[in-house]
Amino acid sequence: MGDPDRMLSASPNWYCSRSSDAAGGLLGFAARNSVYLLRISPQEPGFYGELVGHTERVSSFAFSHYSGQSNLCASSSDDGSVKIWDTRTKSLVTENKLHQGTISSLHWSPLVKDLLVTGDEKGIVVCFWCNRNDGQQFFPEPRTIFCLSCAPHHEDLVAIGYKDGMIVIIDISRRGEVTHRLRGHDDEIHCLAWCPHPREEDLYQKMEETQGVEPNATNGDLLPESENKGCYLASGSKDQTIRIWSSSTGKGIMTLRLPYLKRRGGGMDPTVKERLWLTVHWPRGHPTQILSSCFGGELLLWELSRSGKQKWSLLGSSEGQNHSRIVFNLCSLVTEEGKELLLSTSMDRDVKCWDLGALSCCWSLSSLGGFVYSLAFSPVAAGCLAVGVGDSMIRVWNSLSVVNAYDVKTLWQGIRSKVTALSWHPTKEGSLAFGTDDGKVGIFDVFSTKPPQISSTYHKKTVYSMSWGPPLPPFSFGAEGDRPPFTLYSCGGEGIIFQHNPWKLTLGAQDINKLIHDTNDIKHKLPSHTELSWKPDWQHLAIGNEDGSIEIFRAPHLQLIGTIQQHHKIVNALRWHHDHSEDPTLSFLLASGSNNAVIYVHNLKGALENPAEIPVTITDPFRTLSGHTAKITSLSWSPHHDARLVSANYDGTSQVWDVLQEEPISNYRGHKGRLLCVQWSPVEADQIWTGADDFCLHNWSISKQEHSRPPKGKKSNELEKKRSLQVRNKAKKKKKTDNITPEVGGEVMSREQESPITPAQNGTSDQEEDRASPEIIPEKTAPQEAVAESPPVLDASPLPSVEKRSPSPIFKRAAPRKEQPKEKGDLHSRKKKSRSLLPISTSKDHRSKEEQHRDCIKLAGVLCANGGESAGGTCSLDEHTSHLGLYSDRATLHRLMEEEGKAHLESGHSELQHQIMLWKGDLQGALKLAADRGELTDQLLALAPMAGYKVWVWTVDAYVKQLCFQEQYVKAATHLLSINKVYEAVQLLKGNHLYREAIAVAKSRLQTDDPVLGDLYTSWATVLEQDGHYSMAAKCYLGASSPYDAAKVLAKKGDLPSLSTAAELAFISGEKTLAATFALRCAQEHITAKNWVGAQTSLKQHPTLLGQRLVFCTSELLFNRLEDKTPVDWKTQSTPCFHDWVGHGSEEPFISKLTGLWQMEYRLCSADQYTEVCQQLCTSDTPPTTANTSPKQLLFHIAQEVALSALSYLSKSWDEMASALLRALSRCHQAGQFTLMQEISQLLYPNGCDELRMNLNPDNKQSLAACDSVRAFLAYVKLYEVWWNPSEVKMEISSVEDADLPAPGEKDTPEMLCDFRVLLSDLHAGFQNAQREITDVQQALREMIQQHQRNRQIQDNSLELDQDSESNPTSSPEKDSDGNSLISSPNPVSLTELMKKLSTANHKLAEFPEYLKVLPFPDVLESCLVILHLPSSELTSDVHGQARSLLQRHGSGSPDHQKVARKFVSSLEGQQP
């Protein structure tokens, strides 16, 4: 029941020698940590099921090809397990965990029914006999196993291919003894394939006829057996060759070298060996033909018996049939019709099916390599679905294609990042806008091969939402033909909404915040936007914000109409109801979802049609949909129904809701991860499309789901269990080799620039998936014996790698630390000798006496020549005697100093070099040298002014850069201040998130009105807000003179203290409207805790909330009166906190006590006050009541109606009073709270409503009808009181028998009869009957449509049923999905008859007055039945007769009433003459 009808699964895993196989009409392939099964036919594939159980990447998969057990298959995983599955039940049969290393290959023996052979990267081969659950290990070679294959001609032979190019054939009956070593390849063995023909003679004869084939000079050791029976073995290697081997002789008989194919579209460079994966397949029944992959995704058919150089033929007769990337796996199966099909999986994420007879592609199935972030159906092309995926590609699926059910086109050009948002143009076919993870916005023409148009304006963060809408200023200026009819709106993670001109994307986008500021004269900072949705009439825009608020704007100037303060967390989804429903008021419904797991639906009809001068604040939802346990990620309204909504959630389920009834309808649990997007099919009313982070897109039927509600309390159990089965990557270091780079998802770093799949796209590209790796990584550690033969690689297991590398460096670092304190003590115990500044000169002066004498002679000769100091003397001291410069001239001394400085630099004592340069007087050179080497110090900086002002400033700048590199930002800013670069210092501190220090500097050094200071406060507040430090963020906003934002950020936490503080702050700062909003929320929190005193205190200082204060006062009085009789489930253990005046005067009538309290406590005395407060309450629309409305919310709604009636009573507005009293009673009736309605009627109408009727205007028919409805509800309550109290009935019966004694209730009987007559309204009975007829016809239409859809699904999904229907066309269409005959139903009704009935009922309904349609009234037929069941002795015959007459005239339309009233109607007919 949880399986999808259609789906796009995760991509087959890459770089696996055998990750797909086919048998029994099924294809299975490993994708991430699951195995997907497809039904295979030449026409199209079909999803069969999924094998779930591995916790890490599935590395190998194989079917059992033993005769009669094609339903069995096996899979291996990086979690170390090998599992055996039964595809019929899709369940686990058995498993083993005999391997210690990472399993790299697996094969099921075609000759032994229960033998499964697996190999791991440490060189271990395990034979597992699943029937007896027994295994045996072999270690034939100390090499890394890449692939293996069991021989089809000998049950004991297994061929094994290794990473270094070696191939061995072992005999498992001889404990894995090597029978042949096949040497010839010099690189990885990617695949081994045995010839399906078990003898070698035929091919030998043909080989003898074929000359010029390259021989293989190497052979292995032959066993001393005289067996002539052998089988050919084909091997594909990374060295670009395919070799054919003889298993009987161990010799290579043929070498095939891959051709270099040139094809349009940029095939990969054949010289890049890292891009090659060479897989081979030997099809059944073709011993002389072999299939292989090639460099760029081509498939080649090799004719081994063909003479000449070109032995291959290319599969795919037309352009586009071949894969666009390297192929990893090939397998084949034979259909029931005898047609042989080839199936291939590739890096381009396509699974293709080929007809080997025609060498052409039958169909292609796309798969997904990332999260499914976004879904969008085209409003122009029916059934065209766009899918935004985390593998940096967009899929466009023609879901209505008749030729191919998986007609998918892939768009990749110009994207290069995760596609997170999509939106189709409303009128232009094929125009698709997309947004990416890196903030890019572009528009594709899906019918063209051109790259997309990219907007020149990028978002700073991820694009979360996109929508087309009417142009706003400045794009709306100009003539009709000079501006686009629709512009593109994108919302990014930084909280900004851009408007893009699709005609001129290169000119830059406009931030709509500027328009909002200018139009509404807003001075404060706008909240960060997270979602947007245009109403279908293009007149109103809803924007969701990070603080949970939703703002409604009117186009084209974005005039703020109102704000919805319902969510308290980030808004993730906003959707308007469609505008083609039967009830036009439904188009005003706005559904919203956020992180708080509750969906709210608001009816904005009043706010949009009658906008107030001041934007309204809406705090009560029209409907509340609860049940999910995690955040809401996406919403979608049904285009086929009224008020049907589907939601996607992080709890891993998708839920369909009936919004008006607040009831869940269907829950889908087929995904294994968190749901990210959902769309209701625009063409199939029963179809939903969902995407999730399990890399899958599902198409499922509502009617097929066994669950109707979201899972309760399973958020941390089922979902985490499902997600634990997803791939988890282990932290491993990557090495640079000539082989395949072990990147996540098997991506190869050497990619061509023009390739459609970029490096980030080739593997798993989502960071959210914990670096999941769905593809095999070939390079992992081989056993120790193989280290000398291959480059060192990392161990596959994290524990051994730590043991090998950790001890040595840790020991070397730890030893000096232990001895260091002792060394420090020794150094301090003796005086430290300073280092010589001129060590070369000093060492030369400490040479032997003979050398010192020679220096004296040479120095004397130089000094005394030509009268002492001469130019020639200077020249006579060469570079070998420069150490004498200390005693010679200045030039020689400078040369000595240069040598001394170089020596200091070489020994790492640059500070001594700086001193020498200072001694020379080269201060500027010393500073430059220190700056270039990053060795400036405070001492050098202090000397810098000696070289001049410019040198000092330059040195400070260089020192600041050095300090920034050393992350000493505060010190760097201090030095900037020393040269009066205040703005640079502030920017430096701000750029490194040192906001506190930056503000201190700016506030002390800059002007108070400098905008930099405000920007600092705002930036710091934004960071603090994101980190959840709301109080500190509020301080920052206050420092930036933005109390509005301070109040809003304080209220984000949503608890009582925060709301109270936010309200007070807003009130102090003059933001009266905002203060009132927070005060109302604070009061509601107080009421939740039953603290009416605190609620009134919160509202006391807000005159605009006087109406709400009266409502809270009314609710307090109602709760106190009803607490003992009808307890309201408050779902809290708090003790009620009432005012002192609640318990006084309890005998006083409720309305009188209530109005008296208002006049005494709230000084409500004048008519103007009554009118003003009444207007306040009328502007706040309360949602309609349903059976799911909570008792607490119901009490508040009743309190508001009672407060309105009391205000009308004070102002003598009797007409409004009647309507309000009627609404109070009808809310109880609609909620099914009869006991509450009984108590409310006793409180409000202790003496009936005669006084009210006397005061009504006799000319106002609606008021009179409202009063009659009130009387009817009172009679309805009285009727059931009599019905439920048999003692009164018995008393009345006994009083009738005793005629002399007056009955206790005899005086009340006429009044009671009069009350009951109010219920017997022929006008209301006819109106209710017409409503029932319309409802019945609509239900019949829905059932007819659903039945038609089920019949279509049966015909489309079952080929056998189609064939039966062709042979017997009258049998199949007449049965539904349960096999029940539709024609055999008692009263078959056609669509024409139903539409005729609906038209007749609508005409009847139109004849009734309008006021009757809006005023509630008890069910007349229900009242008739209750009256007829009462004792007839207490009711006059005319009451009984009137009840029977109503049942007879109007009961035919209701089968339930007709069934119950049958005996009364028949008895009436019997009494008639």
List the helices and strands and how they pair.
Layout: E1 6-8, E2 20-23, E3 26-31, E4 34-39, E5 46-52, E6 58-63, E7 72-77, E8 82-86, E9 91-96, E10 103-108, E11 115-120, E12 125-129, E13 134-138, E14 145-150, E15 157-162, E16 167-171, E17 177-182, E18 189-194, H1 201-209, E19 232-237, E20 241-246, E21 251-257, E22 280-281, E23 289-293, E24 299-303, E25 312-314, E26 327-334, E27 340-346, E28 350-355, E29 360-366, E30 372-377, E31 384-389, E32 394-398, E33 407-411, E34 419-424, E35 431-436, E36 441-445, E37 453-454, E38 463-469, E39 487-492, E40 497-500, E41 510-511, H2 512-520, E42 529-534, E43 540-545, E44 550-554, E45 559-564, E46 571-576, E47 589-594, E48 599-603, H3 605-609, E49 616-618, E50 623-625, E51 632-637, E52 644-649, E53 654-658, E54 663-668, E55 675-680, E56 687-692, E57 697-701, H4 718-724, H5 798-805, H6 807-829, H7 839-844, H8 849-864, H9 871-876, H10 890-906, H11 910-920, H12 923-932, H13 938-943, H14 949-965, H15 969-978, H16 982-991, H17 995-1005, H18 1011-1026, H19 1030-1039, H20 1043-1050, H21 1056-1068, H22 1072-1088, H23 1092-1099, ...
Parallel strand pairs: 45-49
Antiparallel strand pairs: 1-57, 2-3, 3-4, 4-5, 6-7, 7-8, 8-9, 10-11, 11-12, 12-13, 14-15, 15-16, 16-17, 18-19, 19-20, 20-21, 22-23, 23-24, 24-25, 26-27, 27-28, 28-29, 30-31, 31-32, 32-33, 34-35, 35-36, 36-37, 38-39, 39-40, 40-41, 42-43, 43-44, 44-45, 46-47, 47-48, 48-50, 51-52, 52-53, 53-54, ...
